[in-house]
Fold:
Amino acid sequence: MSENKALNPFSAKTPEAVNTTAPVNAAATSDQARAIQEVTAALMIAKQCPRDPIQAVDRIINSCARPTLANAALYEYARGGTAITGPSIRLAEAVAQQWGNMQFGIRELSQENGASTVEAFAWDVETNTRQTKQFQVKHWRDTKKGGYALKDQRDIYELIANQGARRLRACILGVVPGDVIEAAVNQCMLTQQADVDTSPDAIKAMLSAFRENYKVGQDQIEARIQRRIDAIQPGQVLQLRRIYKSLADGMAKPSDFFDGVTEAPPVTESAVNAALEASGTAAVEEKKVDDFSSDIDF
Structure:
């Protein structure tokens, strides 16, 4: 009877079965297994410790009540003659941290032929909702006098971080519910309105920040707000803060907002460090340059 029974070609007992599996790299297999275990563990922990949306939104609103975050939370840039305002990368990161059960970041996938392939991602581990954006970053910097290739690894890193920040923000905003983002923006605006400083010292610091970092003088600012600087209103100070944040994040250029501005190449952290080393003095106060943007100092 057994002679009339067809053999299962997938049976392990088939004598003709030959192992044709290609050789496997042990290190690659180990890395793959570890990555799978990390993802599985993250999913299990998120299911065991789900977020409470009410508490999460309360934490977000409490964070946005801090003036230091609120002042860096919004940007503004001009498009087609219309001012567009939105949440900055700093606000998006704060929302993702307080929303909970999220993983987000920027990773460089490869670097070859003078360009990097980069991925920005945001993953809500609890709902398994994921946003990714892959893009190319050419190791090149354009200036009005022509461009040049970047060779310093620190400059390349800063370029990738700056360009990746906008994609990362888009990924986070695509995962976190829109009404949660709107609540955070509204709280930041309320905090800014309660923290507007129009004292002479604050206005002087603002003018100094625009002049030293973006070559924008008092005349250009007065032309923008259409009044003398000593008569500036709190709402106009908030607008200038958003413009400054937009410039710091690379969302816009000074010429998008101010007439007659001569733009200078961006100052990188490596250039600052080289200047400090060349000065040969330790009395200069160290100024930390953020990976994605400069802090607002007025």
